[in-house]
Design a protein that fits this description.
- This protein is α+β, with helices and mostly antiparallel strands.
- The protein has three domains: 197 residues, Methylamine Dehydrogenase, Chain H, CATH 2.130.10; 189 residues, Methylamine Dehydrogenase, Chain H, CATH 2.130.10.30; 74 residues, no CATH class.
- The protein is 18% helix and 29% strand.
- It has a four-stranded antiparallel beta sheet with strand order 1-2-3-4, with no helix packed on it. Strands 5-6-7-8 form a four-stranded antiparallel beta sheet, with no helix packed on it. Strands 9-10-11-12 form a four-stranded antiparallel beta sheet, with no helix packed on it.
- The longest helix has 39 residues.
- The N terminus and C terminus are likely disordered.
Amino acid sequence: MLAVKLPDSGTLSQKIIRIVTGEAHTLALTGEGSIYSWGRGTFGRLGTGKESDELFPVRIGFDLSKKVGLSEEICERTNPKFVGIAAGAYHSLALEDDGSVWSWGYNVYGQLGFSEGNSSVPCFIEQLLQLGSPDSVEESNPINKTPLKVSSVKAGGMMSLAIDSLGGLWMWGNCPPQSSTNDGEFSLVSSSVPLPVREFHGQTVIKVACGNEHVVALVSPGETLTGNNLVCYSWGNNNHGQLGLGDKESRLYPSIVETFNQECPWAVYEIACGAFHTAVLTSRKMGSETGSSNVSMKESEMKGFMCWTFGLGDNGQLGNGTTTSTCLPGPVNELPQDAFLISVDCGLFHTCVVSAAGDVWAWGMEKGLGLCPDASFSGTDSGDALSPLRILCNELHGPKFEDPVQVACGAAHTVLVANDGYKLWAWGRGRSGVLGGGSTTDSFVPCIAMWPPLADNFDEVTIGKEGKVKDNEFGKMMEKKLSLALEEMEVLRTKLALMERYASILHGSIFGKSFTERDLPAVLLNWGTFNIEKEWENMIESADRGKLTRIEAFYQNMLAGVKDKLMKRRIEEIVKECLHSLSTGSPVNMENAPSSQ
């Protein structure tokens, strides 16, 4: 009998330690070093060997025979362990624990690290084996002939980046050029060969992020990192002020973002880039009372942790209450002053941050959900969020997300790792299965993605000689999952029953008969937008004399039940305003409506 131990819920194989998102796909890295992908499969970005979509997380296989210098025997008995992942718009990267880098997906600009076409399976990047050799860097660079190893990978748009073991930064794909073009105008250049960013020689690059055409890096001022002395650099296209340098002039070479220079009282510890905007997280330096920043700060100076944004603001993705683009970093002041922000990421036109306490805020396009052109929001619920909106968990789990780890934003969806890495939540545009829960519909509230994947559960149960599951272990596991699902369904069923009861009582009070499905407006049945003022006007116009008499009686009874004369007068005023607005089409001002207290 082949006995394979069924893992406990806390094993590394089920713990997610990193999540990244592309335009419409997601990658997850587990504690044991496996990589999973789901979402849109176009261009082979999922690494599954095909271009079809995946509605649930699937494990990616790696053919070690493609690696240079490995014997066939080692390839057959070795399972690679990965320590890093990255996702561009349509391509993906993976970093092995020995420094090897793999890539797959879209490759028109050489972002996979080779000159061939797209790849639907992971390919080993041989070019990165030569990092640090004399012919790949300047002769003045005092690096010995021992090849450097890649220590981290990053991707964004159509470019790929890597930081080596000495803190050097390398770029390939559609990247900012290393020299000026003939016409003097800024434009990206394509390269399938990793190119070093020589301006950081003698410094250590700690973190890097990139948007469609710009790059932001956190760099130590010297060869070693001491304390919170990181310097923030940016370069690339700056047509929306996404470099945070105070103007819209593009930069060929890294420039210091002076708002976060060494003299300022804020230390940057996280960076993220959207397509044309940037977000950073800062902590207040110990002992700093005032700073020399060129950003005027008042109440925000008292905050211990802050989120700053700059660049394109057309859809509210800067979170400053406006749709104005800014060329200098500005604080997102409406975030709570005592929130310890642990993760930030930017989508195409939205931004999301997470606190250590499990609070999540989002802002930008379509209520901070991202690009959802088919959203069915209407009335006061529609439109972009210009300031942070709290994203609540659900009735079953409470308003907060327990033990959050990281948030990642795709072009139009958001994924959150919670429960110390053992649970995935997702929301936003759902087409192609990018939310990982088996559905292709949009979700305007967080929903649980399928984690751990069911396929892995099959592989990990005890199997007998006949190839059948033994001891009902798999049944017990599925029974637990089913129990949780039924528990959530029961919560939804209870809420639905309360809503139906409320609607029935209200409908009966007004119209004197029980509420049925036939009473629902056609536009609501078809899941279109619902304008309650317009539907009420249509109902009044089409009502017969008996129904109108019943409505008037309900109104008179409602007034008779109000004992306070001032409140009765205010109700009459509100009704008159509503009737006037229905006839003119103007909005109703409810700011001064009486409260129930």
